[in-house]
Amino acid sequence: MSKWKERVFCFGNGESRNELTTPKNWIKLRLQGITYGCNAFYRDYRPDVLIARDRGMMHEIYRSGYCKRNICYFEDWNPLPLYSYELLAKG
């Protein structure tokens, strides 16, 4: 069976997710479909896909190393090329 299932569950960071994302419920949801989380959701759970639009949140997620091991989608993400760092460092 493919990892990608027919059902999709999307989670934000509001209070409404508290009841659904207890550890016991989270395991059940992961088995039933694909999970998408937004912004700081990754702090508590690891969704199949993490989405962020807020620049501060995108940088937090990137700096945490979460992107290296998980699928993340950022809006308008442009890491600076190495030569840009040298120009900025020199002032």
What does this structure look like?
The protein is 41% helix and 21% strand. It has 91 residues and is α/β, with parallel strands linked by helices. The radius of gyration is 16 Å and the shape is elongated. The mean pLDDT is 82.
Short description:
With 91 residues, the chain is of the alpha/beta class. It is 41% helix and 21% strand.
Key descriptive features of the protein:
91 residues, alpha/beta, 4-stranded parallel sheet, 41% helix
Computed Rg: 16 Å
Q: Would you list the SSEs in sequence order as H and E?
A: EHHEEHHEH
The structural class is: alpha/beta
Summarize the main sheet: 4 strands, parallel
Give unreliable regions as ranges: none
Query: What global shape is seen?
Result: elongated
Write the layout of secondary structure elements.
Blueprint: E1 7-11, H1 17-20, H2 23-32, E2 33-38, E3 49-52, H3 55-64, H4 66-69, E4 71-74, H5 82-90
